[in-house]
Write a structure and sequence with these properties.
Layout lengths: L2 H4 L5 H32 L2 H14 L9 H15 L5 H10 L2 H4 L5 H10 L5
Helix pairs in contact: 2-7, 3-4
């Protein structure tokens, strides 16, 4: 057998495959982090959530105006992201690739939609 038939030359399809794999892994990582933050968020009492929102609102110098629900969730999420220990992408990737089954239970399925959006062809 010649070396050409044993190993195809890298081409655009191979590059797109690795980009696609990278996109799926990044989407799974975002999903994993979201799931971890959601779990912590749901474990908090309403009082603690409001305390977190108030602390973050003060830190960001929000005035006395009434905060909408989306703003409160964004503020609480920002504060939780700073306090919940999450691995960086490369650490997570290494651990995930070594034992994906240990992480699958923590994924909420959001990665599927995210990776499909990245793979969708652009329309002009």
């Amino acid at each position: 057998m010649s070396s050409d038939t044993e190993r195809p030359a890298p081409g655009r399809d191979a590059e797109r495959g690795s980009e696609s794999d990278e996109g799926v892994l990044r989407a799974k990582y975002a999903d994993y982090c979201s799931a971890q933050l959601t779990e912590v968020f749901l474990s908090l009492s309403e009082e603690r959530i409001y305390e977190i929102v108030e602390e973050e609102a003060r830190a960001q110098a929000f005035g006395q105006e009434r905060l909408g629900f989306q703003t409160m969730v964004r503020l609480a999420t920002k504060r939780l992201r700073e306090s919940v220990p999450l691995p960086d992408f490369e650490t997570w990737r290494r651990d995930y690739e070594a034992a994906p089954e240990e992480y699958e239970a923590y994924l909420m399925g959001l990665w599927r939609q995210r990776s499909e959006e990245e793979e969708a062809p652009e329309t002009d």
